[in-house]
Amino acid sequence: KDRRDLARALKLIYSAVDDTAAEAALTSFEAGFWGQKFPAIGNMWRRAWQEVIPFFAFPRDVRRIIYTTNAIEALNSKLRRAVRARGHFPSDEAATKLLYLVLNRSEKAWKMPPKEWAMAKSQFAVLFADRFHAARA
């Protein structure tokens, strides 16, 4: 019954401007009502903090795509299905090519892509220019 309110409180952490603001939001969460009611949540965030920090290096639009799990889970499902159907690969390059083809086909099949996708894609092009443009060629 507390799921929505708890999620709203946690959103202040992962939607913070940078890692310093996120840590302040986490401290505030832990000291607040939800942190007192569910202390294990604050402890989990603290234990995984070193893995969370790189997330804040990305611009807000890219982070939104990352933490919007429906789109990610749907895409992950397509990737798993393609790998499972193939079974094994003669090389890592063969696996990479298959995943690339699945990703391209998936993007074209989106009837209504997430609204942040266009902005995230342009941010990926800026952040990962060499890899991004090589993959698009």
Can you give a write-up of this model?
The chain is mainly alpha-helical. It has 10 helices and no strands. The chain folds into 2 domains: 3-57, no CATH class; 63-136, no CATH class. It has helices at residues 3-14, 19-31, 33-37, 39-47, 49-52, 60-67, 69-86, 92-109, 117-127, 129-136.
Task: Give descriptors for this structure.
single chain; 137 residues; mainly alpha; 2 domains; elongated
Helix percentage: over 70%
Strand residue percentage:
under 5%
Number of helices: 10
| SSE pattern | HHHHHHHHHH
Q: Could you say which overall geometry the principal axes of the C-alpha atoms support?
A: elongated
Mean pLDDT: 83
Helices and strands, with pairings:
Layout: H1 3-14, H2 19-31, H3 33-37, H4 39-47, H5 49-52, H6 60-67, H7 69-86, H8 92-109, H9 117-127, H10 129-136
Brief rundown of the structure:
This protein is mainly alpha-helical and 137 residues long.
